[in-house]
Amino acid sequence: MRCPSNDDGTYDIGVHIAVISYFVKPTLLSTTMPRRAQPVSTLSNKLSLCSHPHSANSGKDCLAFPVIFTMIEEGKATNGWFGHTVVKQSAQLSFANAQDAIDGKVLGGIPVHPGHDASAIEHDVKILHRIAKVLRDHRAKSGALFTETPKSAFTLDESGRPVDCDQSVPNDTDSLVQ
């Protein structure tokens, strides 16, 4: 994700959704089985088709449906574009890495593909965070309700039965991604 400043002080921000359906063979019956769902990251790793934040396939081309917004830092979109693109991930950031960048820590330990550098990625994450915060503030002033409910994650055994449960409290990175 790259959001360089344009000459007029706006930012181009792209949200790219991977096109996985191209690689899935059609069937006559499509169902979702409880405790049998295939996470997108697992599917993309098996097919080696796309860069996913938790994937080992960073740096590979990925077909995507993007929306690219031109925004001012005050959170107003001045333009938007929908289309088809091929994207290539410049680095793999975990939620913890992104939170470190928001907190002002250095991302020196993450591998970055040639032509990119960690300090530029830190800068971009901070800009995205500032814009996302302005957008959340606008929504709150308009009456949106935000809940800070901890998320539950269950660990399942081989038979699909829960064996453990963990909770996490949302942080700035969770809000940024949302």
Fold and architecture overview:
By secondary structure, this protein is an alpha+beta fold. It has helices at 40-47, 95-102, 118-141, 172-177, and strands at 11-18, 61-71, 77-82, 85-88, 151-156, 162-168. It has one domain (11-27, 38-177). 26% of the residues lie in helices and 24% in strands. Strand 2 and strand 3 (77-82) form a beta hairpin. The radius of gyration is 18 Å and the shape is globular. The model is unreliable at 40-57 (pLDDT under 50).
> Could you list the spans in which at least 5 consecutive residues all have pLDDT below 50?
40-57
Shape: globular
Helix tally equals 4
Helix content: 25-40%
Order of helices and strands: EHEEEHHEEH
**DSSP strand tally:** 6
Characteristic key phrases:
two-stranded antiparallel ribbon, 4-stranded antiparallel sheet, alpha+beta, 4 helices, about 180 residues, about 25% helix
Summarize the structure.
By secondary structure, the chain is α+β, with helices and mostly antiparallel strands. 26% of the residues lie in helices and 24% in strands.
